[in-house]
Write a structure and sequence with these properties.
Keywords: Membrane, Transmembrane, Transmembrane helix. The structure is a single chain. The chain is of the alpha+beta class. 53% of the residues lie in helices and 20% in strands. It folds into two domains: 2-50, no CATH class; 54-195. Strand 1 and strand 2 (73-78) form a beta hairpin.
């Protein structure tokens, strides 16, 4: 907001409340316009772009070792773990990236993992490209200069699958993982509805 005041003062040479209001409207309008463009691109053009990227390197190399094309991602096995690999045209850092997700059973000794468990796992790896999430370990490779090498992707996924095993977690197939995630979230919705 301070920048709006400063910008208004610079343009008009004096403090003008109408200038501040107009600049605020302009900023608000541009934000809505850019947000709408981002949404349209992601919803309408994003899936096609993701599918087209799967026809290129490094994804073609992953298909050669047994990964199968599903919707807008690839699915396969590494060290017996189900692995999903795909393309994200804009990650949290704003770069296009390849992502790899290794699925694992989100229960340890029959108990569901919670945020404390996930934070503890995240802090144990000290890696800004790995993200522990409920029932999965996600890794990203940015396209900052060039596409990542398929061998480095496979090596990292193998290393991460061993990390999951060393943490005492079990393998799970995609359908069981999906059912487990859905049951966990429907359970938490019921719990939240009962506490309101």
């Amino acid at each position: 907001m301070l920048l709006v005041f400063l910008f208004s003062f610079i343009i008009s040479g004096k403090f003008n409340i109408n200038g501040i209001i107009n600049i605020t409207y302009l900023i608000f309008g541009v934000s809505i316009f850019l947000g709408t463009l981002y949404y349209i691109y992601d919803i309408y053009f994003g899936p096609k772009k993701r599918v087209n990227e799967l026809k290129k390197y490094p994804f073609t190399e992953l298909m050669k070792i047994g990964f199968k094309h599903k919707k807008d991602y690839l699915i396969g096995k590494i060290n017996g773990f189900t692995v999903i690999v795909g393309y994200n045209w804009r990650n949290e850092k704003g770069f296009p990236c390849v992502y790899g997700i290794i699925l694992f059973d989100p229960r340890i000794n029959g108990k569901h993992m919670n945020n404390y468990d996930l934070n503890k796992l995240q802090n144990s790896i000290k890696d800004e490209y790995n993200f522990w999430e409920y029932g999965r370990l996600k890794t990203e490779w940015d396209f900052t200069k060039e596409k990542p090498n398929h061998k480095s992707i496979i090596t990292k996924l193998k290393k991460n699958s061993n990390l999951i095993l060393n943490k005492g977690m079990n393998k799970i197939n995609f359908e069981n993982w999906k059912n487990e995630i859905e049951s966990k979230y429907s359970e938490s919705k019921k719990t939240n509805a009962n506490t309101v």
